[in-house]
Design a protein that fits this description.
The protein contains 16 helices and 18 strands. By secondary structure, the chain is an alpha/beta fold. The chain has 2 domains: 418 residues, Glycosidases (TIM Barrel, Alpha-Beta Barrel); 144 residues, no CATH class.
């Protein structure tokens, strides 16, 4: 199999292909294909809660957890220094609503001891994991006051505007505390960076390891960074800006930062509009993207996220809006069906209105904008309602968009309650992983399971249904999310058994997951699927979340990640350029395959032989 180098501009990519072809003795440069400008395979970013392990930003203060109001307590004498301060509230007096913050989230003033507030200081912390890189760090700031770095660390030097320290451990946490600040020159413009990035972090705002991991992909979907389940953005002057103290707030990561990452990765951005956004907000958003996005890349836009899913706030909002516009619609349907149909009519209408605004802003370059209408992948009437939007007099909506998108995961039936006893038994057996992957790839292992296993079920239950709807409107079929979905957290199927959770965690790290992904990706393409966005890229797994490709940006291999790169025929940047003198293409591929095998062995647990139970 031939691999093309890291995606670049087409001219740069052609040069890279010719260079590698020359080095490896290849004379037919068509063997190293230049990718299409249309995205074939991309990734979603992880949620805001994944930022401490994904670490996409050079400035770590952007992923801090916000200001907590604190007070002074004498821990040796176990008595208050500030009035009302106790051992229970010293680190959080829960007076955040009383904070005096500027437009960017910096604290402009603090109460005095004799004021009515209990707090006299503020603390911002981080949720760093045990494998967070230790070493030399620098805290930079402007303004006057008293600011401290707290944790298991040694202060190397300190002067106004700069604190240099060695971070020894994160077991005690890492906190930034402000106990004094001058109201006319308050402490602001706070940055926390590795010492070797002090002079470059403003010019190079993205973690180089993170960029290396995401650069091979054609597109990045930023849904999770827009925080669609919590955002209340309506008007443009409310949107978060790059100067904000942190990007973990309720309205998510600034739009400018998302576009800058797409530029740095040379990727097509897939952008999700907030569900409450006004027409003016959408218009200004589109104008910003047109100004800031470099090159002639396409842009994929989607209104909110999973508007069919009635557990999401956006769907409830859509139901309210639809009920106001069509109060008498679907009165004889069940409550659930009525809500879903109402939400999807309003969603279809709003998608078309959003699309019209974006196309108008892009004018003679409107073909760069791909408007997506998305729905559930395996229930035809839900997608049909969004595409037809029969309640809206300007419908149907499917004829006024550019693509139909679904979330066609595989393996979701395996953890259903009906199969729970048998799958739990697998988790306790030494050959349980083999049984699981046999079910995924071939089927016939689960009693009453679907014929052909998880990959065939993905075709039958997802692709056939979705393709039929897409074809009805002549639309390409996209996947807004995709990948394995062994875990369940929907009642009554929610998985809480630690043995089973550990089993699914092991399965995601097992080398056989690569083969399952290869079958899955091949099936997607053979069934006519176009742009696929894996959910998600980088972030440490948790009991309810095994979706990520890599746990941290330092990780170079995983079965899922390697399967996606092999599917695209891509060698990562570090594989191509870190060897001096350059290796032949054949040698590069062989070295990468060896590194994969070593990486898989490191994460494969050794099961106890005494009782056949997993750890």
């Amino acid at each position: 199999m031939f691999f093309s180098p890291l995606r670049m501009s087409q001219s740069a990519l052609l040069w890279g292909c010719l260079l590698i072809a020359t080095l490896s003795g290849i004379t037919n440069n068509s063997a190293l294909a230049i990718p299409s400008p249309d995205p074939r395979l991309g990734i979603n970013v992880g949620g805001l809660h994944k930022l401490p392990t994904a670490m996409p930003f050079t400035d770590l203060f952007k992923i801090s957890q916000g200001w907590f109001t604190s007070c002074e307590f004498n821990w040796q004498k176990k008595q208050a220094i500030d009035p009302g301060c106790t051992a229970q509230n010293a680190f959080n007096t829960q007076e955040q609503d009383k904070l005096d913050l500027d437009r960017y989230g910096y604290v402009r003033s603090l109460p005095e001891q004799d004021d009515s507030e209990t707090y006299t200081s503020v603390i911002s912390g981080f949720h760093f994991d045990d494998d967070f890189p230790l070493g030399h760090y620098v805290l930079l700031y402007s303004g006057m006051g008293k600011i401290e770095v707290l944790g298991a660390l040694n202060i190397v030097s300190q002067r106004a505007g700069r604190i240099e320290f060695d971070l020894l451990s994160v077991r005690m946490g890492l906190k930034i505390k402000i106990s004094q600040t001058k109201s006319k020159n308050y402490i602001r413009k706070i940055h926390l960076v590795a010492k070797d990035k002090e002079k470059t972090f403003e010019r190079q705002p993205f973690n180089s390891d993170y960029l290396s991991r995401v650069r091979p992909f054609d597109a990045i979907r930023f849904m999770s960074w827009t925080n669609p389940r919590a955002t209340n953005l309506v008007e443009w002057d409310e949107h978060p800006m790059p100067e904000f103290v942190r990007y973990t707030g309720v309205n998510g990561v600034p739009i400018e930062v998302m576009i800058d990452l797409a530029n740095a990765a040379n990727a097509v951005p897939w952008l999700n509009m907030p569900h409450r956004a006004s027409d003016d907000f959408i218009r200004e958003y589109a104008r910003l993207v047109r100004r800031r996005l470099t090159g002639n890349k396409k842009i994929i836009i989607e209104f909110s996220n999973e508007m069919w899913n009635v557990i999401f706030p956006a769907t409830l909002y859509a139901v309210e809006q639809a009920t106001q516009q069509w109060p008498n619609a679907y009165q004889h349907h069940s409550d659930y069906e009525r809500r879903v149909k109402l939400a999807n009519n309003w969603y279809g209408k709003r998608t078309v209105e959003m699309c019209r605004i974006w196309k108008q802003v892009f004018g003679n370059k409107k073909d760069r904008v791909t408007c997506v209408i998305a729905s559930q992948s395996n229930i035809a009437w839900v997608g049909q309602e969004a595409l037809d939007c029969p309640l809206w007099k300007e419908g149907p909506c499917g004829s006024q968009v550019d693509a139909y998108a679904v979330g066609p995961y595989f393996g979701e039936y395996i953890a259903k309650l009906v199969h729970r006893k048998q799958v739990t038994d697998w988790a306790r057996r030494l050959d349980g992983i083999s049984q699981l992957f046999k079910e995924i790839e071939q089927g016939g292992v689960l009693e009453n399971g679907p014929k052909g296993g998880a990959i065939q079920y993905f075709i039958d239950a997802h692709m056939v249904v979705s393709n039929k709807l897409a074809d009805e409107y002549g639309l390409p079929l996209f996947a807004y999310e995709a990948g394995q979905h062994l875990i369940r957290y929907d009642p009554p199927h929610k998985v809480t058994d630690l043995t089973l959770l550990n089993f699914f965690m092991r399965a995601n790290k097992n080398y056989r997951m690569k083969s399952a992904y290869q079958r899955y990706l091949k099936a997607w393409e053979q069934q006519g699927g176009k742009t696929m966005m894996h959910y998600y890229g980088i972030g440490k797994p948790s009991p309810n979340d095994f979706f990520g490709l890599l746990a941290t940006p330092k990780q170079e291999h995983s079965p899922k990640y390697d399967a996606l790169l092999d599917y695209m025929g891509v060698l990562p940047y570090n594989v191509i350029y870190k060897h001096h003198p350059p290796l032949s293409l054949k040698a590069l591929i062989k070295r990468r395959q060896k590194a994969q095998q070593e990486a898989y062995r490191k994460v494969e647990p050794k099961l106890p032989k005494s009782d056949g139970h997993s750890s």
